[in-house]
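User: Hi! I'm a student and our assignment asks us to look at how structure tokens line up with a sequence. Could you show me two examples?

Assistant: Happy to help. In each example below, the sequence comes first and the structure tokens follow. Example one:
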Amino acid sequence: MKALLWIVLCAAIVANVSLNLMEDNGLHIALSVVSGLVVLASGAGLWMLRREARP
């Protein structure tokens, strides 16, 4: 599960960076919002699946 979330996170970051090469229009804004939400969701999922440090 964690590996899938890492792959999704990296793919969304790459997609977000490549979207900056597009012209500013409605599709650019929509895809940027979607990729941002995917980054936030996968980051939150990874944070929730982390292991607590044991003393």
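Example two works the same way, sequence first and then tokens:
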Amino acid sequence: MPANPKYLTQSKWQRFAKITAAILGGYFVSVTFHLALASWFNRANILMTMAFSGFILWVALMVIAFLAKSGWKIWGIYILLTLVFSLFIYLGQTYNPTAQ
């Protein structure tokens, strides 16, 4: 049974924003989250865990991107989260440089 067209995104730009936010934005958030953890905790353990939990988080962020009403809003949220996690990476490497 095909999807009901009234529930599908009509705008091509919104569809493009959702697809790119799901793939690229979700990936950036997932990777920066795990790298932020790695800069504060045991780097080897976090990066090994990232091989599994990173993929699960990425898929969850993809689903969230497609459930959002606006593709541009979800892009803004993902960029903001990426910047916040990047700040945590910077602070972790500055104040905790010997986290092994």
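Here is something you could point out in your write-up. The helical segments are 12-40, 43-67, 71-95.
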